[in-house]
Amino acid sequence: MRTASIEDDARSESRQPLGGWAKRLLDLMVASTALILAGPILVVIPLLIKATTGGPVLFVHQRIGFDGKAFDCYKFRTMVRNAEEVLEQHLSCNPQAAQEWAANQKLSCDPRILFFGKMLRKSSLDELPQLFNILRGDMSCVGPRPVVADELQRYGAASHEYLKTRPGLTGLWQINGRNTTEYSHRVLLDTQYVRTWSLRRDLSILMRTIPAMMKFDQTS
């Protein structure tokens, strides 16, 4: 039994995320450059969060990464402090909202989101701290969006495709409708990305991400 365990650990360590060293090098280059360019914004946003809402600046939540390993995913806080309680109460009192949440894991009118948080989400600036996740190796610049453990079940048979790569800051979902698409379509896009990956396609997705971010009607 001990030998089998050692062999399993060795196989796990030998597995490499999708794209290997080439994708990792691109991640380091892009994330480092983005952090330098976004430096002033990364200073201003925390000050505005403190001034308008008080409380913690960052929202840290466990997500599932490459090979099923959990990691702390960073975002600027856009919700009230007791977000889980507010969500539970809202869904229990609103069957239509509960149905929407069950279908997409998102709400078009989310009572948890603060006023300043809405602006951060519309501009996707709330996700800037995930550049540090990329430098740490938790995430990639391009890939499926990171999901929580329960959410991974929605991928069904395609979950093994998700686990082959590091989750991404952007991806096919972001440039193809984002929140206007159903969750099942998101799974199809993530599966397609993994099965047809190329460094050239990552570059193409990165170039198309900024125009996609400008489509504020497609963000939550």
What does this structure look like?
- This protein is mainly alpha-helical.
- It contains 11 helices and 4 strands; from the N terminus they run H-H-H-E-E-H-H-H-H-E-H-H-E-H-H.
- The strands form 2 sheets. Strands 1-2 form a two-stranded antiparallel ribbon.
- The model is unreliable at about 1-10 (pLDDT under 50).
Structural class: mainly alpha
Q: Approximately how much beta-strand content do the residues carry? A: 5-15%
Mass-distribution shape: globular
Assembly annotation: single chain
Main pleated-sheet profile: 2 strands, antiparallel
Q: What do the pLDDT scores average to? A: 86
Strand order of the largest sheet: 1-2
Which regions contain 5 or more consecutive residues with pLDDT less than 50? 1-10
Helix segment tally: 11
What is the ordering of alpha helices and beta strands?
HHHEEHHHHEHHEHH
Count of β-strands: 4
Distance between the termini: 49 Å
Fraction of helical residues:
40-55%
Radius of gyration computed on alpha carbons: 18 Å
Key terms:
4 strands; 220 residues; two-stranded parallel sheet; 11 helices; mainly alpha; two-stranded antiparallel sheet
Give a quick summary of the entry.
The chain has 220 residues and is mainly α. The protein has helices spanning 2-14, 20-37, 39-52, 83-93, 95-104, 115-123, 130-136, 149-152, 159-162, 183-195, 199-213; strands spanning 58-64, 70-76, 140-142, 168-170. It is globular, with a radius of gyration of 18 Å.
